[in-house]
Each structure stands twice: as C-alpha cells, then as structure tokens.
Design a protein that fits this description.
Blueprint: E1 3-10, H1 16-30, E2 36-43, E3 50-57, H2 60-67, H3 70-82, E4 88-92
Antiparallel strand pairs: 1-3, 1-4, 2-3
Length: 95
C-alpha cells in the first residue's frame, strides 16, 4: 500500500542556512531511494522559515528504510535545537 506523507518543518531563523542545507541534502539523497515515488519540498511564502515536504512511498517498508538513513538521522539530531517545534508528520492513504 502506498503511503502519502506530509511533513511540516519550522526552522528557527538563527539556524536557517544550516537547516536549509540539511533539508536540501535530504531531498537529493531521498530521491535516489527505490521506494521513493515522490519527495518534494515547499517553502512558505509568508514565512520563509516554514517548509512542507510532500512524499509518496511505495510502502511502509520503504518508508522505514528511509527513516534509517544517515541523512535522516542527521536531521533528527538537530530537531530540538534548531527547529521552532517538533515536525508535524501526517501519514495518509489515497481514497
């Protein structure tokens, strides 16, 4: 079953450049994963510190594999210190 995932990330302005670089690397690396069907990042128009990921995964196993990758763990290491709040993750299915 395909998994559709939306993630909302709010960067602390003081860490914008560092976190944006990490997010860009996540996109570059993730798009190489075989279970990744789509992985897009959007930036807020009114608030440039807000990013929204829209992802489509072949299945839960592929998403689990993705979450174990070093570039995802690198992002996880900075969450508490460099984001305004924990990312909001919404997993859905197509109806």
């Amino acid at each position: 079953m395909k998994i559709y995932l939306t993630a909302i990330i709010k960067i602390k302005p003081a860490h914008f450049n560092e976190v944006k670089s990490i997010l860009d690397n996540m996109v570059k690396q993730t798009r190489k994963e075989t279970a990744c069907l789509q992985y897009d990042i959007h930036q807020g128009i009114d608030d440039k510190n807000i990013f929204v990921f829209y992802e489509i995964w072949e299945n839960q196993q592929g998403l689990d594999h993705h979450n174990a990758q070093p570039y995802i763990k690198e992002f996880g290491d900075i969450v508490k210190e460099k984001l305004q709040e924990l990312p909001q993750i919404i997993k859905t299915t197509l109806i």
